[in-house]
Amino acid sequence: MSALSEELDKEIKKRRTFAIISHPDAGKTTLTEKLLLYGGAIHLAGSIKSRKTQRHAVSDWMEIEKQRGISVTSSVLQFDYDGCRINILDTPGHQDFSEDTYRTLMAVDSAVMVIDVAKGVEAQTKKLFKVCKQRGIPIFTFVNKLDHYGKLPIDLMDEIENVLGIRSYPMNWPIGQDGQYMGVYDRRNDKVLLFAADTTHGQQARIADVYEPDDPAVIERVGEETWQALKDDIELLDEAGEEFDMEKVNSGELTPMFFGSAMTNFGVQDFLEGYIRMAPTPQPRMSSDGLIAPDDEKFSGFVFKIQANMNPAHRDRLAFIRICSGKFERNMSVWHERSGKIIKLAQPQQFLAQDRQIIDTAYPGDIVGLFDPGIFGIGDTICDESHKFKYADFPVFPPEKFARVQAKDTMKRKQFVKGIEQLTQEGAIQLFQQAGAGMESYIVGTVGTLQFEVLEYRLKNEYNVDITMNMQPYEVARWLAFKDGSEVTPASLRGADRGMFVYDRKGNPVLLVSNEWALGWIMDNNPDLILNHVPFDR
Ligand code: G4P
């Protein structure tokens, strides 16, 4: 074994890279903060949360975040725990989330799904879960806010199975009455963990008292009735519940489930330790040259996110790279697949809690931010010159919101086009042209409506262009082809005027309609038509 491969082996085993998927307010920010607290990366909880109300203007357009108190951008947090290096890729949590949220899920090896015990599975969780499920990555569940009244644990298990189609295996079980839980029973270790009352308002990590289940002190602390209820529940789970099967966890068919409360630190450490034990290390990735293993000594990675103007003083653009194989070294030269050029990676940045810092080395599973002079695009591969290949394309996430956009001042058309092109290249928006319409306006498609605000704000602040924007009443986009290969045009498509006929950037015909029902009509009346929810060449 070479020294490099020994080093890689050691570093890869340490790494866990994941994202938290949840609906807004389920407690993602609080849980992230508590994980950092247990990891020793922050000392008093509250530093991330307080940013929610008094955010620093890291970039111009984060003003939007400040005004609305939401997180638009995904950041990356890294901390060490128990010999492991953990990378958390944060996902924008507002319901107006964007394609960035989806793309972040392309760069992780597992996901943590946070569910509010009272609300159960909510809309955004469902959407994000679907993307994880398609990738077949392991999903871990943290049921949060157990200090609150909520649904019964058993009912939540049913809901997860019915709504998401994944079975769950409770790793621990709450002890106590609804909303007044005193601790958890750890099924794997057959131990009872009881928590003393939280006197620090969740600011400090809480250590649980650990007991053998039959220790008389347990009954004394929780009371006879609660003790009996716990025993009954566990018996039921052992007999009627799912069996634990690590293979099913790895393929995303079974989710290990943890109960806790991020705010009061109850069950958080138990979750973190269970997660680290089960979560996958960096995984191989499909490429044009087959699967690339992380311990391949030759460096490779891909761009999953591009963010412009994070620092208004420098007008910089950062490309976020997920390292997939080999060792990353500052100033190394790599082959950039899309341009076919060799480029030098000069200013790598990494993220520890809120701080950005220049780094010298990184390993598979890590994320580095690279200063981007405008060459990177979403999904780009960079790799060693001696082994050239391309990582599999990202899925296209179909836009669901559309607006007609044009510059208020026609004299500013040049800047307008430049800005729109830039945002399209960053992957923030998808661009269409209405059939038969002039060149002065575009139809812009996005996954979430927030992107329109970002578009307006950035065009104004970075390109000095005011725009008019008219939302269009469409929610479904379908790429069109005729079975016999003949061209689809507004004239050859029956019912084209029931929606809007547009062309994508490559000139492919696309129909925008208001709902699935309208789509059904088009299908019924054009039996020779093939519809696709992404371009046919993807
Ligand atoms: P998000 O990132 O998923 O949007 O959720 P976030 O962590 O911001 O939490 C949303 C709200 O839920 C916050 O309350 C937070 O304090 C609360 N919360 C998080 N974890 C728990 C928990 O375990 N138990 C209870 N009872 N509440 C929890 P807020 O009122 O919006 O903010 P704040 O006033 O607490 O700062």
Automatic annotation (TrEMBL):
GO cellular component: cytosol
Residues in Tr-type G domain copies: 13-283
Name of the protein described by the UniProt record: Peptide chain release factor 3
HAMAP family: Rel_fac_3 (MF_00072)
Binding site for GTP: 22-29, 90-94, 144-147
This protein's UniProt keywords: Cytoplasm, GTP-binding, Nucleotide-binding, Protein biosynthesis
PANTHER family on file: PEPTIDE CHAIN RELEASE FACTOR RF3
Biological function: Increases the formation of ribosomal termination complexes and stimulates activities of RF-1 and RF-2. It binds guanine nucleotides and has strong preference for UGA stop codons. It may interact directly with the ribosome. The stimulation of RF-1 and RF-2 is significantly reduced by GTP and GDP, but not by GMP.
Gene Ontology BP term (one): regulation of translational termination
NCBIfam families (UniProt xref): prfC, PRK00741.1, small_GTP
Annotated family: Belongs to the TRAFAC class translation factor GTPase superfamily. Classic translation factor GTPase family. PrfC subfamily.
Pfam families attached to this UniProt entry: EF-G_D2, GTP_EFTU, RF3_C
UniProt-annotated location(s): Cytoplasm
Native organism: Mitsuokella multacida DSM 20544
MF annotations from Gene Ontology: GTP binding; GTPase activity; translation release factor activity, codon nonspecific; translation release factor activity, codon specific
InterPro entries, per database record: EF-G-like_DII, EFG_III/V, G_TR_CS, P-loop_NTPase, PrfC, RF3_C, RF3_dom_3_sf, RF3_GTP-bd
